[in-house]
Design a protein that fits this description.
By secondary structure, the chain is an alpha/beta fold. It has helices spanning 2-48, 103-118, 141-150, 165-168, 196-211, and strands spanning 72-75, 81-83, 92-98, 124-134, 157-160, 175-179, 190-191.
């Protein structure tokens, strides 16, 4: 009872005021905490959303090399002199660079023979070029003739001057170029062997593109 009397009415009022202020402060604290939580949540959401607008991805364009296959040499079978004028009678010429040491080259020779017969009516011709036999040298020439004979290859094969720039620049065989009547490369070079049907599809697409 002493303790109660000691507080009296004024003491009760003070306690009530203090209690009210404590509740108000606590409410404000909770409200403030809630607001901060809300802000953090919004920031987090914003950080995890990917931008709608992205940079345009550019597809690299396949470029046809600015290359004309000028050359001097001789026909493997006849020994007659040849040059880029051999391209003139045809709309397109498929120039297949091959070597006597190259298994994929040898495997595709029959396909190229088949192709030469298929595309003849389109004024397209096939010409082989030896990469390991050169004009004026006997090295690998006899071997090349033997391979051509055994595989019954009728399309012409040439041996060129060893200093022919575009020939010495080739890093892998077989490499095949498609050129127009002036010897200018008009399609992407083909590295590696192909079947007759695959070559035919490429030739047809090239002829179509030249019409545009």
């Amino acid at each position: 009872m002493k303790d109660i009397k000691l507080f009296g009415l004024n003491g009760c009022k003070k306690i009530a005021v203090l209690a009210f202020l404590s509740c108000a402060a606590f409410s404000a604290f909770c409200a403030g905490k809630k607001d901060k939580t809300s802000v953090k949540t919004e920031v987090k959401v914003e950080e995890t959303v990917a931008p709608v607008v992205q940079e345009e991805v550019k597809v690299p364009e396949v470029k046809i090399p600015d290359l004309t296959l000028n050359f001097k040499g001789s026909d493997l079978a006849t020994g007659m002199e040849v040059d880029q004028k051999e391209f003139a009678p045809a709309k397109l010429t498929l120039v297949n660079v091959w070597g006597t040491f190259c298994p994929p080259c040898l495997e595709e020779l029959p396909d190229l023979e088949k192709l030469s017969k298929k595309v003849m009516w389109q004024r397209v011709q096939v010409i082989g070029v030896l990469c390991d036999a050169f004009d004026g040298s006997t090295r690998n020439v006899d071997l090349a003739k033997k391979i051509i004979r055994e595989k019954n290859i009728a399309y012409r094969n040439f041996i060129l001057d060893k200093n022919t720039p575009w020939l010495t620049a080739i890093q892998a065989v077989p490499t095949t170029y498609i050129v127009d009547s002036k010897g200018k490369v008009v399609a992407e070079p083909i590295v590696g062997s192909r079947t007759a049907d695959e070559y035919k599809a490429i030739i047809d697409a090239t002829l179509e593109s030249l019409k545009k």
